[in-house]
Amino acid sequence: MSAEPEVVDNADESRFEIRVDGSTAGFAEYKLSPEKIAFTHTEIDESYSGRGLAGALVRSALDDVSSRGLAVLPFCPYVRSWIAKHPDYVDLVPADQRARFHLE
Description:
Number of strands: 5
Oligomer: single chain
Largest sheet: 5 strands, mixed
Shape: globular
Number of domains: 1
Order of helices and strands: EEEEHEH
């Protein structure tokens, strides 16, 4: 039985990574600035697809940046659609930026 997936912020690579049994199964790349974080690309390795890892990765990453008080700019289409499906996370996107990401 495999362990629970683990999400870590690999700041050196500017990405959150989701690891399964010690192997990197996917990542969400970002650009960090003092008050905000822009998610640019999310990818899950094909061998791990269909396990819900992308959603787990994004939820964990957003929870982490929320705890740091960062605003989120979801340029990545997956992150943007995930936030749209989870309205309790829309507040992470600055109100004046939500129309730009179709999150109103």
